[in-house]
Amino acid sequence: MPKDNGIGASSKRREDVRFLTGAGRYTDDLNIHGQAYVCFLRSDTAHAKLASVETDQASAMPGVLRVFTGADFEGVGGLPCGWQITDRNGEPMKEPAHPILAQGKVRHVGDPIAAVVAETAAQARDAAEAILVDYDEMPAVVDMKSALESGPLVHEDAGTNLCFDWGFVEDNREAVDKALAAAHHVTTLKLTNNRLVANPMEPRVAIGDYDAATDVSTLYTTSQNPHVIRLLMGAFVLSIPEHKLRVVSPDVGGGFGSKIYHYAEEAFCTFASRQLLRPVKWTASRSEAFISDAHGRDHVTKIELGLDAEGNFLAIRTETLANMGAYLSTFAPAVPTYLHGTLMAGNYKTPQIYVNVKAVFTNTVPVDAYRGAGRPEATFQLERVIDKAAREIGMDPIELRRKNFIEKDQFPYTTPVALQYDTGDYAATMDKLEEIADIAGFDARAAESKRNGKLRGLGVNCYIEACGIAPSNLVGQLGARAGLYESATVRVNATGSVTVMTGSHSHGQGHETTFPQVVSDMLGIAEDQINIVHGDTANTPMGMGTYGSRSIAVGGAALVRATEKIISKAKKIAAHLMESSADDIEFADGQFTVAGTDKSVAWGDVCLTAYVPHNYPLDELEPGLEETAFYDPANFTFPAGAYACEVEVDAETGKVDIVAFAAADDFGNVINPMIVDGQVHGGIAQGAGQALLEHAVYDETGQIISGSYMEYAMPRADDIPDLIVDHSCQTPCTHNPLGVKGCGEAGAIGSPPTIVNAVVDALRRGGYEVDHIDMPLTPYRVWEAISR
Amino acid sequence: METVNLIVNGSAFSGEVEGRKLLSDFLREDLRCTGTHVGCDTGQCGACVVHVGGKAVKSCSMFAWEADGMEVATIEGMADEESLGDIQQAFQDSHALQCGFCTPGMVMSAAALLDENPNPTDAEIRDYLEGNLCRCTGYHNIVKAIRSVAERRASAGAA
């Protein structure tokens, strides 16, 4: 029987009402009295020395308040990187400066050179066009191999385009080499993981607002993690202490990772507002987003899988080139390393694994985490090579996967790439998948497609991800320059309603609905008596924000801990009111009862007593009922699942249609099934976009070819079929109080290999000897593979 | 400057606007109807869809003065004081929105679709939404919401 409130209920989202009536409050909807507008002049050249930047004419244009150039930022810090990788030889990664405005050199198309602040946005744009830049052009390098071999240096002071050469686990290297040399069969696959642009529908916005009377700067920004922005910008860029800096992110229109990072425009607007004593607003155009939002993926990989004669996996070796772009974005170095190499075991008991990653600077937009972040790259190569291996040894791909699954009685399971999976049941999700995708009926559907002149293929795939990011002491050892706990303050009001302040920050996930479901269950009060405050550093405890499928697993856990403290104190107050001992108080359904008696007091009476302490043990207990908890997870969480896709390919044109897609996920316990379904739907669509449509393409001079929605193909409604999703297989997380694992990235991780597996299967069923096609599988690429 | 007279969500507006001002910017900045969103600058994403003269248009792709003398309907006019409109309610019931940024344009397109074709097939719904990008939902629940409105209107009409 489905629940109608609390944990496990598909409560309708309360935030929807404002979004559906045009009453949402996104950053660009904010206008501060007296605000001026910024237009950035961005480099149209990928790599050049700046011989001169002439601003006199622009400065004299109507409405212009000031034109800023790199010279204004000489004494100001650059954008910091939040994760330091140590390479195979124990050396730190190369970490070049990342200025707010270019210091004498530009390194990618879109690199900001100057900024005009004017009375209106149109005046700022007009004046930016009047700035004269004399570029001393240099050869650009876009291809990672060229960058390492002979390319011009993106950063001369680094002396190389190699950011780091990382081995994981370095001590496994020789054992893996030996195991592969001795293997009965080795399957090798070379592939690329295509560069993507996150493309949340809301472009980025920043408004700096300095109040000279209090010496406090407020930054309104489209961020997934306002506290992180305050810390990075305050401590590393502008030297503003936290108590003089407030960061506010109101409603955020999607992020998918791209709104985690601290960007130059945020620091610029804050800085310019302090200089001009005016609020300063910047709103990105979509064209600007394509050349200034951090991009995602962009790996080139060779993977080898060794098997014995029975099909048991023996060893995996992978070599990856990972594009960092022109500068290190906030968490960029963590993505191809600890978010990627650690996942190479997948759902399987492969005993020996070695991962090598070379991170490379190129004259392209910086690359950082995008929905899944490293885990999709790991899953893609692993699941593609398994499919190829199954064909090569003549085994059904589902059977080969099942044969190598970590079995459910093997948990907790320590992988050779340093993770300990706490729980899982991969055979159960595969059983569920076979049922919901009707795998048994595929042959009949393929025959029907054939009658219609189409090649039908079936792709199956498994994935695992490490979510609930992350145990601070562990990530600290691995190079993170931040803790990754989360926080919650639960404030019980005098008449019994509850306000929750959380460091997590929804950008579409529905926290305003799901967090109250948790508190409602614990306190026995109605969900509508509970309100969530988030997205404002002035009103919430320090928290690390929302990404990496962490908000319910880490933020939710903090919420549980804070609510437990509330219950503990409330029991003491109830004990006093009933002249009993707190140890004898039971709390259920909003009633405090003395165990074994009919004596009870209601939730509301206890709350009122806390704030009107006329009859109160003030010598033992403080008045008030408000508690804060910080939760630092003991381990990652490990959502996992099995996906199936059926495609139809038109062999004459190469066009691929996804005709069926099913996902069987294990997210542990689920707070709101409706919202979880939606998260998986959206993830699958983004993965389908990567597999079939999306590609951020650069030409050899470093110009981005797909820089708008005219060229960058986003998935549209008729690209995606109806989706079958199921999360009834639940092995609850063993180390967080809700038993939850997180669900935000699963779809984007699991779907790309599923779709590519399906297309390759379709072509082979049609008699075409195709082993692999690189994403996106556009009609041209598929047709080309067929025609080879 | 250009003079414009238009009716937005039933209220008359007369005033002057800069010739180059887009209808989307006019609605957001001059009328403070910030429910109309701008998600791209190439008329591709559909976050800015409003109705002009009863037809769905991308308000980022026309000048404010081009709407002179016309009736404009935006997301702010889709609910009455008491309750959401039936499309809005269906979007909430079906979880057809997540971050909410594309939602106003999506609802305005859905309204135009159901005016033109009260009983669309799923394929017709998906085809009609070609001009509206959503990055969050994968469209599954948007199609479901629109289908449910068509069904509910049909059964209400039959009763």
Through-space gap between termini of chain B: 53 Å
CATH class of the largest domain in chain B: Alpha Beta
Strand order of the largest sheet of chain B: 2-1-5-3-4
Strand order of the largest sheet of chain A: 3-5-1-13-10-11-12
How many domain units of chain B?
A: 2
Judging from the principal axes of the Cα atoms, what is the shape of chain A? globular
CATH fold call of the largest domain in chain B: Ubiquitin-like (UB roll)
Describe the sheet with the most strands of chain B: 5 strands, mixed
Q: Which percent range fits the helix content of chain A? A: 25-40%
Using DSSP, what is the number of strands of chain A? 30
Rg of chain A, please? 27 Å
H-E order of chain B: EEHEEEHHHH
Number of helices of chain B: 5
Biggest sheet architecture of chain A: 7 strands, mixed
Which consecutive residue ranges of chain A, at least 5 long each, have pLDDT under 50?
A: none
Low-confidence stretches of chain B: none
Structure overview:
- The complex is a heterodimer of chains A (about 800) and B (about 160).
- With about 800 residues, chain A is α+β, with helices and mostly antiparallel strands.
- Helices cover about 30% and strands about 25% of the residues of chain A.
- Among the domains of chain A are: about 15-20 and about 485-630, Aldehyde oxidase/xanthine dehydrogenase, molybdopterin binding domain (Aldehyde Oxidoreductase, domain 4); about 425-465 and about 635-788, Aldehyde Oxidoreductase, domain 4, CATH 3.30.365.10.
- The mean pLDDT of chain A is about 95.
- With about 160 residues, chain B is α+β, with helices and mostly antiparallel strands.
- Chain B has a five-stranded mixed β-sheet, with helices on one face.
- In chain B, α2 (about 85-95) packs across α5.
- Chain B is globular, with a radius of gyration of 16 Å.
- At the A-B interface, α1 and α17 of A face α2, α3, α4 and α5 of B.
